[in-house]
Design goal:
Layout lengths: L1 H6 L10 E5 L2 E5 L3 H12 L3 E7 L2 E10 L7
Antiparallel strand pairs: 1-2, 3-4
Length: 73
Amino acid sequence: MHELRRRFAIEGADDDVTQVVLDAGSVYVGLPSREGSLLGELLRGGEIGYELSLDPRSPVVIGVYPMRPVARG
């Protein structure tokens, strides 16, 4: 999530975390609530996928990726 914060100049506290409720359960993203809510909409809509922390195994999102090819023009 730090790469998203840096790339899009997302301001907020270092410990900002937003809960995102999905069909499979809740996950937590290290973003302020506004940006975390937007990310949640993209996740629920199937626009992006996510990778969870494995060490320790927890529902903390550590990465996101596109689910559809991005058209370059």
